[in-house]
Amino acid sequence: MTDDYERITLAIDFIRNNVGNQPTLAEVAAHIHLSEYHFQRLFSRWAGVTPKRYLQALTLERAKNLLRKQPLSTLNASYEVGLSSGSRLYDHFVQIEAVTPSEFKQKGQGLSIVYGYHTSPYGLVFLAQTSRGICQLDFVDMHDAEAPLRHLQQNWCNADIIEDKIQTAKVIDSLFSGSKPDPSPLSLWVRGTNFQLNVWRALLTLQQSEVASYGDIAQLIGKPKASRAVGTAIGTNPVALIIPCHRVLRQNGELGGYRWGETRKHAILTRELAHF
């Protein structure tokens, strides 16, 4: 499964780098050393769209148009601490709760955390959760697959940390299986400063069809001059995908950075926009 993701990563990079030449199915398949038939099936399974549809989506151009022409609906409403009624992810309400200073000081004493590694359309993912909610969701760098687990152990060195893929698979299935999600709220339990939490909550107001600039998010939290600080807070997002930091672009519509890789960010945006 990991090799498949690496092949699709190479294909995505090739398409992006050659979009002006409109590469054919045969050319992309040859680049990753697969037959057209197997490449078409593999790409469609992992990217959620056909290679042709992916090429046609022109995600970056559409994202630029969204920034230039479509005002964000979330900027038309006053910012509220917590979630607005329009904040949904796959028909879930997402609840975010902060780790208290005393809980942080205890470093997880008396706490049980379960974790698991799972495949996803965007490569291997690492999920950790407590009875209070999801505390970490990372895309895994296969050059250092143990990094997310080490990060979890460092942050919660006094917790009882247990691998339980059956438990964590419930969340993964809800996010990626395409089946009807559990109607109960999806809870996050994360550690951050008040500023970081405000930024992450603002990100939760971005719906699947929306992108924003760093300046938009700064305005949304009432700190219009804090674009740089917003970017730093976005870069420390502890819960990939669910807190949708991938929907934040540079003001000119370029992708900008992404903690888990620019190619993956492009793939996530493409899948979301293609299915909107």
Automatic annotation (TrEMBL):
Signal peptide (from-to): none
Enzyme Commission code: 2.1.1.63
Residue span(s) of domain HTH araC/xylS-type: 9-107
Key words of the record: DNA damage, DNA repair, Methyltransferase, Transcription, Transcription regulation, Transferase
Reaction(s) this enzyme catalyzes, per UniProt: a 6-O-methyl-2'-deoxyguanosine in DNA + L-cysteinyl-[protein] = S-methyl-L-cysteinyl-[protein] + a 2'-deoxyguanosine in DNA; a 4-O-methyl-thymidine in DNA + L-cysteinyl-[protein] = a thymidine in DNA + S-methyl-L-cysteinyl-[protein]
SMART domains: HTH_ARAC (SM00342)
UniProt GO BP: DNA repair; methylation
Family matches, as Gene3D superfamilies: Homeodomain-like, Methylated DNA-protein cysteine methyltransferase domain, Winged helix-like DNA-binding domain superfamily/Winged helix DNA-binding domain
Gene Ontology molecular function: DNA-binding transcription factor activity; methylated-DNA-[protein]-cysteine S-methyltransferase activity; sequence-specific DNA binding
Family to which the UniProt record says this protein belongs: Belongs to the MGMT family.
Protein name: methylated-DNA--[protein]-cysteine S-methyltransferase
